[in-house]
């Protein structure tokens, strides 16, 4: 659905930089979903919201890809009115490029790091949609969690890509 300039690297300082894509009906994804990007973090131990299209209060209708204070990847989506959360087993270091993807295929949520499946959990149902803008490098509403680092090749698909497709994106 979207691909934010695959040739560009967006550099964020963690203060107040972000990209706002806007709210287009094509981003009201209620079925299967894949969100992915290349990321190079500048700081460990802080939350970085990478790709976010959520409401800033429970039940957080929408979806997001983030890295938590524990340096693990978080893939979240409001499925059947519940905030489903998948956390990676692996951590993401700073100062190295990594490809990260979150996939919801209608029955499971997956996190891929550098083209390899890192975590999975069951989840079924529809993703709740919202009228908020898609943001890159920042969360929704008053939430900051600005990215300190670089991000490239941001992609949002209205389908759950296969492991083989993710490996191609990560290569």
Secondary structure layout:
Blueprint: E1 2-13, E2 19-22, E3 33-41, E4 48-54, E5 62-67, E6 72-79, E7 82-91, E8 98-104, E9 108-113, E10 116-122, E11 134-136, E12 148-157, H1 163-169
Structure characterization notes:
- By secondary structure, the protein is mainly β.
- The protein contains one helix and twelve strands; from the N terminus they run ββββββββββββα.
- The strands form two sheets. It has a six-stranded antiparallel beta sheet. It has a six-stranded antiparallel beta sheet with strand order 2-11-4-5-6-7, with no helix packed on it.
- A hairpin with a 7-residue loop joins strand 4 (48-54) and strand 5 (62-67).
- The longest helix is centred in the C-terminal third of the chain and has 7 residues, at 163-169.
- The relative contact order is 0.31.
Give a nutshell description of this structure.
Helices cover 4% and strands 52% of the residues. With 171 residues, the chain is mostly beta strands.
């Amino acid at each position: 659905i979207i691909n934010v300039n695959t040739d560009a690297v967006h550099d964020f300082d963690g203060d107040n930089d972000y990209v706002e894509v806007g709210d287009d009906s094509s981003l009201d994804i209620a079925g299967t979903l894949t969100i992915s990007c290349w990321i190079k973090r500048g700081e460990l131990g802080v939350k970085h919201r990478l790709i976010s299209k959520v409401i800033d209060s429970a039940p957080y209708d929408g979806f997001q890809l983030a890295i938590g204070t524990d340096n693990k990847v978080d893939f979240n989506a409001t499925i059947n009115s519940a905030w489903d959360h998948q956390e990676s087993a692996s951590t993401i270091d700073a100062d190295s490029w990594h490809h990260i993807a979150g996939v919801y295929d209608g029955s499971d949520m997956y996190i891929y790091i550098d083209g390899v499946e890192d975590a999975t959990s069951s989840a079924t149902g529809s993703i709740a949609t919202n009228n908020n803008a898609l943001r890159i490098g920042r969360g929704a509403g008053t939430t900051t969690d600005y990215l300190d680092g670089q991000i490239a090749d941001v992609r949002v698909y209205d389908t759950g890509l296969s492991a083989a497709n993710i490996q191609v994106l990560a290569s």
